Amino acid sequence: MSRPVHIVVGSVMGTALNVATEVAKVLETLGHNVRISPAFDGNNLYQTEDEVLLICTSNTGMGDLPENILPLYALLTQTPPNIAGRHYGLINLGDSSYPNFAQAGTTLDEAMADIGATRVGTPCVLDAIYVDEPEEEACDWAKKWAQLL
User: Boundaries of each Flavodoxin-like domain copy (predicted)?
Assistant: First the structure.
């Protein structure tokens, strides 16, 4: 069964947005209706009861959240929506040469779990040290992830 997917992007240099765009194409070819929020404003996290959230974020600084995904974190931690049982997935881009590798995605994953959302599958963690083509790796992951929806 195809389900609508909302991809919320946290990106500094554009890599996470490129990954999200390519993943959206894969999901659409699999029959999913996809919308991308490259600058989430805190509204319409889930538009329908069956929509699945896919967080695609990079890290900045010492594992900090990119500025354009801060509204999502604020929503989840300051005025949490009632999303208990709602489904989400995570694509987490990082660089293991930094001490807080992939912390931004982990922070968002924990915030979603804290308010009762249910993660579908395991996160896609893309380490810039080992992954030359993050879009390709994420698309391969997305094909498997979509089967779990």
Answer: 5-146
